[in-house]
Amino acid sequence: MDLPVIDHDVAHLSQVTPSLLAALGVPEFAGSLGLPEVSRACVLLIDGLGWDLLDAHASDAPVLSELRSRPLRVGYPATTVAGLAAIGTGVASGEHGMAGYTFELPGVGVLNALRWCLHPGGADLREELPAERVQPLPTTFARAEADGVDTSVVSSAMYADTALTRAVLRGGRYVGVHALGDLAAATLDALRPARAFCYAYHSELDMLGHLHGPGSQAWRMQLGQVDRLVESIVDRLPPDSVLAVVADHGMVRLDETTVDLDAVPELADGVRALAGEARARHVHTEDGATPHVLAAWRETLGDRAWVVARDEAIEHGWFGPRVADHVRPRIGDVVAAARGNTGLLRRTAEPMESGLVGHHGSFTSAEQLVPLALAFG
């Protein structure tokens, strides 16, 4: 089976923040996206806003559709944890190491990176597993702050003290918000200083895609609200500023080809731990069992997934141009990326996740491509 081809002519999400900071004149950052010099910059990340979805529903988001200039690819896995880390570190998942919604840490177990607990449904790890240990790279926000840039992270107040925030968004001033109105207001306030950088985040479009499906009426109504959010910021951008609207991934609706991994004994033989999520699985094997597990998963899943050994996935650049030594064990001995609209669910172990309509993580354009929409003050 041919493996997915990564189009390196399309810029990666990890290039966005370094390019904005280069435009602000922060040393050591490269302006690979060709942005002009500015005094103020903001990246607004709309969780779950895929390029294909925006194209299909352009009438619901006229402002965003007019602004969008080019697609970005988000890399593998196409998921929130990896996408936020790409913005927060300026590198791909093979270097920042936030390798999925869940991933295995040697000596710890499978970490749910959103809830910072053992997965599924295990002990809270915030005290014994410092976020800086899991993601030790300095963040783009901390590096901007060190250069004297007034730096802000504007996101939901409920995320202010989470381990994931500390892992990938630490640095700068955290501004907790509660709704679209104060998200817009706080973003504009963050851009008032003479030299400022702001990261702002909106999560609800992704939530409605998971619950009702991407492109559903509820999703489209929320997209319209997001468009008004963007319009309200664009209309009030201060002079000499740039706003970059991006996303962390797109989304697909699962179909009848979906597999319940927990109900297929052949897929459990020789498997020590399963991580990842429904569209991007890390399969960790018992000692010596990798060839058997690889063969069984390939035979059982057939054309419903790309199934490769860890070294092959790394060699083909799935996790970016470089994979750090401490990140390699977080990648499964076998990696399974769903094709088409297949889901690799675990209905017994992950009942909540398995009940969702929309999913993401793999290599389809609907998941991989997100918009880069630019506005200048």
TrEMBL record:
Annotated TM spans: none
Entry superkingdom: Bacteria
GO molecular function, one term: hydrolase activity
Gene3D superfamilies reported for this sequence: Alkaline Phosphatase, subunit A
A UniProt-annotated Pfam family: Phosphodiest
Organism of origin: Prauserella cavernicola
Protein name, entry field: Alkaline phosphatase family protein
Taxonomic path: Bacteria, Bacillati, Actinomycetota, Actinomycetes, Pseudonocardiales
